[in-house]
Amino acid sequence: MATAQAKAGRREWIGLAVLVMVTLIISMDMTVLSYALPFITADLEPTSSQLLWITDVYAFVLAGLLIPMGTLGDRIGRRRLLMIGAAVFGAASVATALSTSPGMLIGTRAVMGAAGATLMPSTMSLIRNMFHDENERRAAIGMWAAGFSAGGVIGLVAGGALLQYFSWGTVFEINVPIMLLLLILAPLLLPEFRNPAAGRLDLLSTVLAFVAVLPMIWGIKQFAEDGMTWPPVAGVLAGLLFLTVFVLRQRRLADPVIDVRLFRAPAFSAAVVMNVLANFALVGFMFFISQYLQLVLGLRPFTAGLWSLPAAGAAGIGAAVLAPMLAQRFRRAYVAAGGLLVGAAGCLVLAQVGDDSGLAMVVVGQALMTGGIAMVLTLSAELIVSTAPPERAGAAAGLSETGSQFGAALGVAILGSIGTYVYRRQLSGGAPDGVPADSWATARETLGGAVEESRTLSATAADTLVALARAAFADELRVAAVAAAGILVVTAVLAAVLLRNVGASVPGQDPSGGPADAGPAGTPAVDPDAAAVSADPAGTGGDPATRAEQTAAEGRLDTEPPAVRIGPDSTPQPSRPAHPVA
Question: Residue ranges of region Disordered (predicted)?
C-alpha cells in the first residue's frame, strides 16, 4: 500500500477552491465567446479571416505555451507564476472588453491565451504540492477536473445571460474580480514551490515547443474549415518536424523542458493517450450538440445552455465523486475503461436523436458522455502529475493540458470533417422547387447557412429547405456520435491494456501492486515537495525552495525512493527501474 502522508488542512482545501475557480474561468473563456461573435461582428465589422483569428487565437497561444510555462513555473516558483499570470489575464480581459478594432481584439485575446497558459499548469502542479496524501490528491484533482469540465458549459449559459442585458465586453470583464481575488488569496493560502536544482531555462526548447504545437493545432482546426488543402497539411507537417527536433533536443539536454523518459512509465503514457482521445470525443462532439439544440430544435442560446447544465452536473459528479471513490477500490484499468464505456454508451444514446425531436435523448446522452469522460480525465490528470517527479510537476501539467488542446482540435477537425461529408452527401441532389440554385449551394455548406437562406424565401420553399437541412444535420450528428463511441471504445481497450499493471495506488506501488522499494533498511518514502512545504504550508514563513535546498544539504531529503525519480539526478543511485510502474 502507498506510504501514508500528512493530511491536508482547512487552508489547503480553501486554497483548492481558489484554484478550481481559476480553472473554471479559463475554461469558460474557451466557450463564452461563441455567443458574443454576432455582436462583435456587428460592432467591429471584422473580415472573415479576422473573425477566425478572434475565435481561435486564444486557444492557439494557450496550447503553444502550456509546456514552456509549466516548466517556467518549476523554475521561478509555481505560485509566483500563477500570480503573474492572474495579473496579466485580468488586465488583458479589460483590454479585450474595451477593444475598438478587430486587430486590437485579436492581440488582447492572444495575451489572454499566453496568461492562461501560465495559470493552467500552475493550478494542477500546486495541487501536487498541497495534497500529499494520495486519496486526498485524487479527490482534489477530481474537483479541479470538474471545474474545468463544467466551465465550458457555464460559459455558454453565462454568455447567453450577459448578452441579453449587457454589451459583448461583459463576457470578458467577469474575469477581473476572480483574478483580483486570486491575487489577494494566493499568498495566504497557496504554497510556493520551485525546483532548487533546476538549471537555466533552455530558450531554444521553449521556442521549439511553441512552433511544434501551434502549427499542428492550427492545421488540424483548418481541416475542419477548408478540408484537405495544402496550408493545413503544411502546418501539420511543419509541426511534426519541429516536434521531432524538440524531442531529439530534450534527449540530449541534462535539464530538459520535458523529460521524454517519462513516457517509459506505462501509467504516464496511458494517461497522455487517454487525455488526448477522451478530449477528441468530448470536444469534437460538443460542436454538434450546440448546433443541434439551436438550429434543429430551435432553442434560444440561453435556453440551450440551460439544457446543457445536467451535463455539467454529471461531469462534476464523475470527476469529483465517482473517479476518486472508485479509484480507491479498483484498479485504474477497470475504472478508466468503465468511464470510457459509459461515455461510449452516452454517444450511442445521442445516435438515436431525430430531426424534429430528441431533447430528452440529448440531455441523457450528453450527461452520460460527459460524466464518463470526466472520470477518465480526472484519472489521467492524477496519473500524469503523480507519476512525474515532484520537481517536474509543472512541466507534466503543461504536457497534460497540451494533450487536452491537441485532442480537442483533432476531434473538431476529424469529427467535423466526417459530419460535413455526411451532410453534403444527404443534400447532393438538385435544388427543391422554389429554392434558387445559389441558395441551395449555400444550404449545402452548413445548417446555419441553410437557416439564413430560408429567411429570403417564400414560406413553402423555406420550410422545405430547412426541413431537408435539419434532416441532413441529424444524420450528420448520428454518424459523428457513432464515430465518437468507437473512439471511446478503442480508448477503453487501450486503457485496460496499458494500465493493467497499475494498482489502486500509483506513486507508491511497483508493477505487482506491492509496496515500492522504500530504500535502505525499510526507510519510509518521503514526498520531496511535502518536505519542502510542510513547515510552512502557506509559503508565508520563508522560501520553501531555499528550505528544501538546505534540508537536502543536511541529508534529510535523501529518503525519496530512487524508483520514483525519472530524469537526471546529481546523486549517484543504484541501478533501478525508472519508475515503479515502468
Answer: 509-582
Residue whose C-alpha cell reads 546523486 in the numeric block: 571
Cell numbers given for 287: 460542436
Distance (Å, whole) CA 519 – CA 102:
60
CA distance 579 to 566: 7
Express as a percent the part of the chain with pLDDT over 70.
80
C-alpha closest to that of 106 among 63, 46, 156: 46
CA dist 118 and 128 (Å) reads 16
Residue 581 backbone phi and psi in degrees, to 5: -105, 5
Cell numbers 472508485: residue: 326
CB neighbour class for 556 (10 Å; exposed up to 12, middle 13-18, buried from 19) = exposed
CB 320 within 8 A of CB 143: yes
Residue 532 C-alpha cell reads as: 519542502
Residue type for position 197: A
Say which residue, 284 or 538, is predicted with more confidence: 284
Buried b / exposed e along 295-316 (16+ C-beta atoms within 10 A): bbbebebbebbbbbbbbbbbbb
Decide which of 267 and 467 is more confident: 467
Q: What pLDDT is stored for residue 551 in this prediction?
A: 42
For 434-460, write each residue's pLDDT tens digit. 888 888 888 887 787 888 888 888 888
User: Under a CB-based contact definition with an 8 Å cutoff, are residues 465 and 450 in contact?
Assistant: yes
